[in-house]
Design a protein that fits this description.
Blueprint lengths: L3 H13 L6 E2 L4 H4 L7 E6 L4 E5 L5 E2 L4 H13 L20 H5 L10 H12 L4 H16 L5 E2 L1 H10 L1 H12 L7 H12 L1 E3 L1 H7 L1 H4 L14 H14 L5 H7 L4 E3 L4 E6 L3 E6 L2 E2 L6 H14 L10
This protein binds glutamine.
Length: 312
């Protein structure tokens, strides 16, 4: 086992001095206020040890990382039928793009772009009421992380509900194709609230453990999803988790990862670790600039890229 603590301490030092930090998301007013100097990292190893550096216990807006958890829930509810409504291919387009939807009849390319995640939220909503569904998502994430302190930041949820016109457009457009089954405002309500989940790197890395353990919750020993489903969620994270930056992330880091515009990234090394990093400045694709760099350094130092021979 590499010396994780030493490695992440060195990474935190490098990140603290990095001159180019990217730009904080400003299209969601509540996120525009976050200080780009902040940084945290948490690594939960397969044996349960937790390594942290920087502000690993500071809560931030997980934004699109929530799409991993709602996808897991939607697969539990709809099973394979989900794939009739959402594709499994990288889009090569921005996370909030609408261009492919018209030609592809309202079927989003994958569950991690906004359009796909809105369909997933609609599935999670099922016949239920949005408030109950938001509660269900919160309980699921708390269960995965073994942490009842996780909450939704109402300021962020409200901020996005007031300004999320693109998401409103995407949901309405898909409704026109029959691919949003419930009320558009209900699907959006669920989506905005799941994106506003506030979690620390430690909580996020804990919540991701099941994906590093073939679908098992290592705390309870109970299965969250089958090993096959965990493998597939990881595959989607690798191919689609960074939108039109997924190829670059695979090239540089080589670990399934899901980013959010709050500056967080959840990264899964099957059989080895669940990792969360946070640095609020984003690159031009909307992915955390220094979070990606931190994961690249970690991957280089540990040999954890899924494209590296184990023990290499
Ligand atoms: N990439 C993201 O994190 C986007 C999520 C954000 N809530 C949005 O819909 O725009």
């Amino acid at each position: 086992m590499p010396d994780i603590q030493r490695i992440i301490d060195t990474i935190a030092e490098e990140i603290a001095g990095a001159p180019h930090r990217g730009r904080v998301a400003d299209y969601i007013p509540a996120l525009a206020k976050v200080d780009p100097m902040r940084f945290g990292i948490a690594v939960v190893a397969a044996d349960g040890r937790v390594f942290t550096a920087g502000e690993a216990d500071a809560a931030f807006s997980i934004q699109s990382i929530s799409k991993v958890f709602t996808l897991t829930m939607a697969l539990g509810k709809a099973g394979q039928a989900l794939w009739k409504r959402v594709g499994r291919e990288p889009s090569g387009s921005a996370f909030n793009s609408i261009v492919q939807l018209e030609q592809e009849h309202g079927i989003p390319r994958n569950p991690f772009i906004n359009a796909g995640a809105l369909v997933v939220s609609d599935v999670v909503l099922g016949g239920g009421d949005p408030r109950a569904t938001i509660g269900e998502i919160l309980r699921f994430v708390r269960y995965l992380a073994d942490d009842d302190a996780i909450a939704i930041d109402m300021d962020v949820a409200g901020s996005e509900a007031r300004t999320g016109f693109r998401n409103v457009a995407l949901a309405n457009y898909m409704k026109a194709f029959g691919n949003i089954e419930r009320r558009v405002e209900d699907a959006l309500n669920v989506y905005f609230n799941q994106c506003a989940l506030a979690m620390s790197c430690r909580q996020l890395a804990m919540a991701g453990r099941f994906l590093a353990h073939d679908g098992m919750h290592p705390g309870t020993g109970r299965r969250v999803v089958s090993a096959l489903r965990a493998r597939r969620i990881n595959a989607l994270m690798l191919t689609c988790g960074h939108y039109d930056g997924s190829g670059e992330f695979a090239f540089r880091v080589g670990i399934p990862g899901k980013s959010g515009v709050g500056g967080g990234i959840l990264a899964i090394v099957p059989g080895e670790a669940s990792i969360a990093v946070w640095s609020p400045g984003l690159n031009e694709r909307g992915n955390s600039q220094l979070g990606s760099l931190a994961l690249e350094r970690l991957s280089d130092a540990t040999g954890w890229s899924v494209f590296t021979a184990r023990g290499g």
